[in-house]
Design a protein that fits this description.
Residues 19-79 form the HTH tetR-type domain. Residues 42-61 bind DNA. This is TetR/AcrR family transcriptional regulator. Keywords: DNA-binding, Transcription, Transcription regulation. By secondary structure, the protein is mainly alpha-helical. The protein has helices spanning 22-36, 43-50, 54-58, 64-86, 95-112, 114-120, 128-154, 163-175, 189-204. The protein is built from nine helices and no strands. The protein folds into two domains: 19-61, Homeodomain-like (Arc Repressor Mutant, subunit A, Orthogonal Bundle); 68-204, Tetracycline Repressor, domain 2.
Length: 207
């Protein structure tokens, strides 16, 4: 008769507070920066919000500026990728189609990263991290303006409005969502993205 196998002892679970990883700390920091202002928020404020010691936070991040940098990258990285793809000359889509697509995508990115984008829109260039983020925003404006100009040369957009002004107005419409959009509100992301895109381009189409 074969004896029953003796089960191995269970591996003891690691002790500690659950949920306080780097991502959680970043989300909490962005919320605090938006509510109190980046300059007015200290690492002590963040520690109190999380119920941790400052030493515990420094186990995950070097300091407040690293959190700001990570938040601004979160706001900019996907949009930068979308704009880069839209401006590739090898695309078989027209400039108008690529412009329309990147505006819709920018709405989706904003809604998915609303807190980080809100923080991005409030930076004023008071540090190297903020200056770098503002430089990336200017690059996005430049790329979108060039795409507008290409679409106008194609005859797909009206050419009587300067491309840079169109770029600023398009991003202004998209960025205004941070003031009122709520993920648990009346409108789902797809409805909002469609509405912004349709309103923008029905008004810009050449007649």
């Amino acid at each position: 008769m074969t004896s029953a196998a003796v089960p191995e002892p269970a591996t003891p679970r690691r002790r500690g507070r659950p949920g306080y990883d780097q991502a959680t700390i970043l989300r909490t920091a962005v919320d605090l920066f938006n509510r109190r202002g980046y300059d007015a928020t200290s690492m002590g404020d963040l520690a109190r919000e999380l119920g941790l010691t400052k030493a515990a936070i420094y186990h995950h991040v070097d300091g407040k500026e690293q959190l700001l940098s990570a938040a601004l990258d979160d706001a900019l990285d996907e949009l930068t990728a979308a704009v880069t793809e839209a401006t590739q000359p090898t695309s078989d889509l027209s400039a108008y189609e690529r412009l329309r697509s990147v505006v819709r995508r920018s709405v989706e990115v904003l809604m998915a990263h609303q807190s980080s984008v809100t923080l991005l829109l409030r930076v004023r260039g008071n540090s190297e991290v903020e200056l770098a983020a503002l430089q990336r925003r200017r690059w996005l404006d430049d790329q979108l303006a060039e795409l507008v100009a290409q679409a106008a040369r194609e005859g797909s957009l009206r050419a009587d409005i300067p491309p840079r002004l169109v770029s600023r107005l398009l991003f202004g419409m998209v960025n205004s969502l941070v003031e009122w959009y709520h993920a648990d509100g009346t409108y789902d992301p797809g409805t909002v993205a469609d509405a912004v895109t349709d309103l923008a381009f029905d008004g810009l189409r050449a007649r």
